[in-house]
Amino acid sequence: MKLLVAALLVGVSLDAAGWKTLFNGKDLDGWKMVGPGSFSVEEGMLRTHGGMGLLYYTGEKFGNSTIRVVFKTTGDRDNSGVFIRLPEQPKDPWYGVHNGYEVQIDAAGDEWHSTGAIYSLSKVTARNQKPVNEWNTMDIILKGQLTTVVLNGKKVNEFRGDQPVPPRKQWYEPVRGPRPDEGYIGLQNHDGRSAVYFRSISVKRD
């Protein structure tokens, strides 16, 4: 009971299965925006606007947990992402790219840049995103240096922080190197033509 009361006091809730809700469906309480563009709350959902920006959860770092994001795209080339393992609270939108990992949301990308990929570091083994305007559930499972991505019930990626990765070719690709076992998490708003909606963001610790 004390744990539940404490969670409610900081704007989150715990359900019976131990999932902690990070987005309250009403406002951006507990979240902070850096960079251009923005997120708005529309009918209980987060919506991306413009970019490239980063909305991150300020409350705590997460490791050895499952991060669950329920999202939908509104266009075939909509682009967004979920940032994980950020060592510090970001001061600019590129901090997440170069210091954490971006779990890509982009149905049109190649296998290194499509939904479920660790952006330019670990390619997907399957494509399982639903069509435009249908809801997708993406589970990002953190266990030490292992990151596993499950999209709509199918495992599409598994990545260890010390495994070989392709060489970095462009400035906007992530700086190579290890990330911490735990870190802050965030959502990306990528560009002006993309409108990605997030219905739920929750975390369950192992």
- Helix percentage: under 10%
| Residue-averaged pLDDT | 93
Percentage beta strand: 35-45%
For this structure, the CATH topology is Jelly Rolls
Order of helices and strands, N to C?
Answer: HEEEEEEEEHEEEEEE
The CATH architecture comes to Sandwich
Number of strands: 14
The number of helical segments is 2
Helices and strands: which structural class?
mainly beta
Low-confidence blocks of residues: 1-11
Task: Give the C-level CATH assignment.
Answer: Mainly Beta
Distance between the termini: 20 Å
Apparent shape:
globular
* Biggest pleated sheet: 9 strands, antiparallel
User: How would you name the CATH homologous superfamily?
Assistant: Exo-inulinase, domain 1
What's the structural domain tally?
1
What does the radius of gyration come to?
16 Å
Topology of this structure?
Blueprint lengths: L1 H8 L3 E2 L5 E2 L9 E4 L3 E5 L2 E5 L3 E5 L7 E9 L6 E7 L8 H5 L1 E5 L30 E8 L2 E6 L2 E7 L23 E6 L6 E10 L1
Antiparallel strand pairs: 1-2, 2-14, 3-6, 4-5, 5-14, 6-13, 7-10, 7-14, 8-9, 8-13, 10-11, 11-12
